[in-house]
Amino acid sequence: MSRLIVVSNRVAPIQEGKPSAGGLAIGVLDALKETGGVWFGWSGEIVGEAGAPVVEKGGKVTYATVGLTRRDYDQYYRGFSNATLWPTFHYRNDLSRFDREEYAGYMRVNANLATKLKTFLKPDDIIWVHDYHMLPFAQELRKLGVANPIGFFLHIPFPVPEMMRTVPPHEELIAAMCQYDVVGFQTDADKQSFIDYVERTGRGHFNDDDGMLQAFGRMLKVGAYPIGIYPDAIAKAAEQFANRKQVKSLRDSMRGRKLIMSVDRLDYSKGLVERFQAFERLLLNAPGWHGRVSLVQIAPPTRSDVQTYQRIRQNLEGEAGRINGRFAQLDWTPIQYLNRKYERNLLMALFRLSQVGYVTPLRDGMNLVAKEYVASQDPADPGALVLSQFAGAADQLPGALVVNPFDLSQMSEALERALSMPLAERQARHADMMVPLRENNLSVWRDSFLSDLRSVATATSVTEKTVKTVRQGATEAKRPAAKA
Ligand code: ADQ
Predict the structure, then answer these.
(1) How far apart are CA 44 and CA 65, in angstroms?
(2) At what angle do helices 245-254 and 344-353 cross, to 10 degrees?
(3) Integer Rg of the chain from CA
(4) What Enzyme Commission number(s) appear in the record (predicted)?
(5) 4-228+441-469, superfamily in CATH?
């Protein structure tokens, strides 16, 4: 079988017993560990001068990493990726800025990384590129003559065309994305937004029957591949870690109180302020819960050198302090806000200990925490999940109490309902959610994406000529472009 080359902004080997990295790293590493292959990307180091990739072997996985110069980091990572694309793709274009030089840096780093990867490539390698940092990566590889199958998976949401058009080089970016052979999204809605952009601007046509998009002179597969977890492994870990010191001490400190758990990277897309305020509303409207419930929010800072992330941190600390000041009693702190990472298995045990999982992002590609929360529960006495309708996971977790995170009253009512939910209802909802979690686990995500990449690549190379001819016809019959 052909070798798998995974490319992502950050290569982050996860060591047993260490705090875990983000969702992308977990998904990618679990996938690579099974098939074996190469993981290529940024080492996380800032270097004086970018050199050749450093290659290390860890079991079946080879890690090939490169450093970024300060300028590359500022323009490509801190700039265009995280101050333009991330906010806009999460529908926060009010927080987004555009700087031409940062965009040029983004394109330059993609080109440099492509040149470095090329030295590793063998003709029958399959290349799987991840996330918004690398939208133009295939285009750069194609410029270097790389004809291997290249797939792309977007871990975050893809915005509706009107929002996409607020990113000034939107058309260049979409044209670059069409250089992949497969473009995958977390949900049908994200997939549809991408297709809508291409069709409404008259740049191509999507065929629903075979999932193929003909655009910018290319034929590519466009699909939804919701990322999953390994629910049974998580359930086992949660059980095994139940007697860890930290879990026991949290259990003791609860002294019979109910526990609402939230775990996120500290990010404005996760809706943390709204979440705290909805909890405050519960305490305000239902004083019977005073002293009987606590919210534990674990949120380690990320991207702390991006300005908006500094502001959200201050804002959140202010809100937690204000709410605690308003309601706390000598022996009860309503919100415990912990600013650090924890070992993944320990988190799963904390989820199992709690009565409510409170996962309310304003926008999220999938949200693995929601899935992990459900998988960690004891089926005999499971907690209930309060979940935002704007997380991709909402499509897949039918037993959750789905809320609009902009509606604080609805969220506080859902919290109350979750806290008071009878055992039989909790069991039934948990069982309902475990079915899709098992059916669409992480291997299904990986295998369905890679199988589409393999088959589309074969088909495309055979029909390349035909596509070009068809494309000429399509251009002639092109629909008028939508008004921007
Ligand atoms: P993230 O935005 O990082 O991922 P998420 O899917 O929730 O969001 O993944 C976070 C992962 O990190 C989870 O596995 C969680 O257990 C872990 N984690 C979070 N906080 C932690 C902490 N304090 N300590 C240790 N571990 C912690 C992006 C997209 C998501 C998409 C994933 C995967 O934004 O929408 O689901 O990629 O595709």
Answers:
(1) 9
(2) 30
(3) 23
(4) 2.4.1.15
(5) Glycogen Phosphorylase B; (3.40.50.2000)
Q: Where are the domains of the chain?
A: 4-228+441-469, 231-439
Q: Is 202 left (phi over 0), alpha (psi -120 to 50) or beta?
A: left
Ligand 1 lined by 369 (C-beta under 6 Å): yes
Nearest atom (ligand 1) to Cα of 392: 35
**pLDDT tens digits, residue range 406-456?**
999 999 999 999 999 999 999 999 999 999 999 999 989 999 999 999 998
Q: Phi/psi at 260 (nearest 5 deg)?
A: -105, 125
Q: Are 459 and 453 in contact (CB under 8 A)?
A: no
Task: Look up the CATH number of domain 231-439.
Answer: 3.40.50.2000
Say if ligand 1 is within 6 A of residue 22 CB: yes
Q: What are the tens digits of pLDDT across the range 192-204? A: 999 999 999 999 9
Q: Using a 6 Å cutoff on CB, does residue 344 contact ligand 1?
A: yes
* Matching fold, domains 4-228+441-469 and 231-439: yes
